[in-house]
Amino acid sequence: MKNLKFTNVLAMLLVGMLVSFSAWAQDAKPKASPPATATGKIGTATVTINYGSPSVKGRTIWGELVPYDKVWRSGANEATTITTDKALMVEGKQLPAGTYSFYTIPGENEWTVIFNKTAKQWGTQYDEKQDALRVKAKPRQAAAMSEQLKYDVTKDGIVLRWENLELPVKVQAAK
Question: Which first-to-last residue range defines the signal peptide (predicted)?
């Protein structure tokens, strides 16, 4: 009787370990669009960008995968967010300190850059009524091809880089 109980407990333990290991192994493979973070100082403000970083994978990005003249979540998965601990001047317009979702409307020669008040949301749940700020920025040819979407926070602002394009957005600390 004791041997039967011990055998049952041992069998349940082995099954539990097997299930745990197989679940762990499934989580080990990398995501198609892994989460990434860019942080830096703009004047005295600390700016952090959290985003999903998709890859080109041989696709044409601008005008095809990401269509022109339509709102794009500017990353993958959850909405890209930008957090600033101090007010900023973005392309000459004031943005209060806080956390915002970041969207763009790509165009061939000019983009609309959008800071939306609803930060925690899936990337496709954009609501224009929640926009805190919209500005214009001009894309340019990148110096090198970028397989994965990447953001940089520099002393002059933020830069989105992907495929053969980069979008610099001029940002300064507000006075």
Answer: 1-25
